[in-house]
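Task: fold both queries, return tokens.
Query 1:
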Amino acid sequence: MEWIVLICIGLFAGTLGSLVGLGGGVIVVPALIYFGTYTGWLENITPQTAVGTSLLVMIFTGLSSTLAYLKHKTVDYKSGLIFFAGAGPGSIIGAWVNKYLNMEDFNLYFGIFMIVMAVILMVRDKLKPIETFKNASFQREFTDPSGNTFHYGYPPVIGAMIALLVGFTSGLFGIGGGSLMVPAMILVFLFPPHVAVATSMFMVFLSALVSSGTHVALGNVKWLYALALIPGAWFGAKIGSFVNTKLESKVLVKVLRIILIFIGLRLIYQSITG
């Protein structure tokens, strides 16, 4: 029974994560903690093993969705590598900090972070893009399949610094980091939304390689659970990337906001009640 549950979790996380550029860890981590700690279906789940296992799965989610987005030529490689220059070290630091959190502290911090992500998703469509970096030294150009050309730019140092924070939260919470990076790319650096999501998943793939490697070294990966999660996450990522290129994801983003708030409040409650 637990294998069916894990496959379904992976499928849902991969689809949702790829669709909006989150990476899927926002579903995998709380699901592992819930089924491991509060139902007993999964054994020996701690904040460390939940995060380490999630990040290993994020490698395959990120790779699958990146390969799918490559076919539509929406991945900005150069920007993804610049962001990874900050996200890579940040994810290692986050992975090491994670080992000092007990279940109550992790639930509290992760719950607060989930609600913050929900608020970001709630207001990002209402915020106007900032023109500060429009004429930055590093300029990019993208032409979509319809022939529309977009121009955007940013200072690479600032991009890497933002990605450092994103990488830290990825290594700490096992979430992939796209929840912060996608709004930053769209609102601050003026990325076209589809390019932001695709490039975010490319960065998620690279940073998950680094942070999961750290968690593997620390013994934080439940390999059997990861093997059950990966197939669902792989195919889910393909589904999410396909849907992303075909229609607006506003309805699913609204659903995701509700899910994040519910999970966040539940984690905070569990932290307080022990």
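Query 1 returned. Query 2:
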Amino acid sequence: MNGEFIAFIALALVAIGGGVLMLNVTKVVHMIVSLVFTFISIAGLYVLLSAEFIAGVQVLIYSGAITIIMLFGIMLTKHQDQEQSSPGIAKRLLIFAGIAAFAFVFYLGIYQLDFGTEAEALHENNTEQIGVSLFTEYVIPFELTSVILLVALIGAIVLAKRDDQEEANDK
């Protein structure tokens, strides 16, 4: 067993543990913290795959921005705290059977996957390769994405102004 394998096992266990913990804790802040553990461990897996750019984006975007947006969204909305009954044994067995079937199909898909030849230049300058590919082959989808984000931002501002005007008119 080499160090890369041990790091993979540790990061995979943290990612799975964070996901399971997020589903089982009851406080929202604890859910967010376990989600951050999952996001950071996935970034570590990207580093093991020599995808440093994707790992950096994972930490910056998901572990930082998305988590903060989720936390603010949850904290700024009103919640109706209601007790939910725990699922019965039949429902739990059905859920487990569904998860097992999904895992089996996923395993078969990965097991029969054939990539052909190995990519030799994958580990060399991958950030540069992403940049060159993004701004040469995919420049139009990249620019369309920025226009869509701009339209969404303008729409959010218009909706916020409309709500402010309605509240001012109601008073």
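Both queries returned. Flag for query 2: The chain has two domains: 1-76, 125-171.
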